Amino acid sequence: MGHGHGHGTAGTGAKHLNRLWVAFAIGAAFMVIEFAVGLTTGSLALISDAAHMLTDVLGVGMALAAILLARRAGAKGSRTFGLYRAEVLAALANAVLLFGVAGYVVFEAVRRFDDPPAVPGLPVVLAATAGLVANLVSFFVLRDGAKESINVRGAYLEVLADLIGSVGVLVSGVVTLVFGWRYADPVMGVAIGLFVLPRTYRLAASALRILFQHAPERLDVAEVQADLGRLPGVAEAHDLHVWTLTSGMEVASAHLTTHPDVDPAQVLRAAQDLLSGRYHIEHATLQVEPSDCAQRCREISW
């Protein structure tokens, strides 16, 4: 059996925990500001951006909780894979929150088209500028971690979407301030909602792929099986499973049927080197078996 855990949650958690704390504090502070000004002025664009920032805060908070949980609880007892899936569940919860907020924003904005309320532009501009600065800081704080962790990527995508939202609110505030056009606020509300939805879908799809134990998108499972079957001494590779435990932690298991008089240890090492070197799978459970044992696998329906 080949051991080794790439750069998974434990490493990612240690590396990015402080950055998440910074993003959490900044988001919480400016969320309060946007909510206060939005409710005072009646700006739907600002309220929706503040609600979206609330999902940022909740999302980063869940990311923090998931990383802390995964760091403290490794594999023990019945938890043979630890609690690494906690970050995937957090990412999926973030996606659900974003779907809800985006749907509400679009619904409320469309409802206001019949009689758009007068919204004072200057307070909206000032609050949107403050929110834009906050999102820019959080964006750069989380950008590197988003490349390594689906959990951090969830928080990063929320901040990115909210960054665009803050720009939109700023534009609508300026248009309202300069031209007095009442439709600027609901129009921007719809635009923000429609911008968020496809990004949220992709995040949810990535999390569900992991939870349903699909093979990583970058891998061609048939190709991996064929390469294992072509190793010296291997008659057949079967019962291959490849899945993602969490970000950066891909796992494989397979049975390798060997020709007579083949050294199983050499076959095992060759298979481990193949999976690690070519496919970047460091943790693989490989059963090397003589040809008369393969029939058992064929009798199992799944």
Automatic annotation (TrEMBL):
Membrane topology, as annotated: Multi-pass membrane protein
Principal location class: membrane
Ranges annotated as spanning the membrane: 20-47, 53-70, 82-107, 119-142, 154-181
Domain Cation efflux protein cytoplasmic: 216-290
Location of the Cation efflux protein transmembrane domain: 20-211
InterPro entries recorded: Cation_efflux (IPR002524), Cation_efflux_CTD (IPR027470), Cation_efflux_CTD_sf (IPR036837), Cation_efflux_TM (IPR058533), Cation_efflux_TMD_sf (IPR027469), CDF/SLC30A (IPR050681)
Keywords: Ion transport, Membrane, Transmembrane, Transmembrane helix, Transport
Localization (cell): Membrane
NCBIfam families hit by this protein: CDF (TIGR01297)
Family label: Belongs to the cation diffusion facilitator (CDF) transporter (TC 2.A.4) family. SLC30A subfamily.
Name by which UniProt lists this protein: Cation diffusion facilitator family transporter
Provenance organism: Saccharothrix lopnurensis
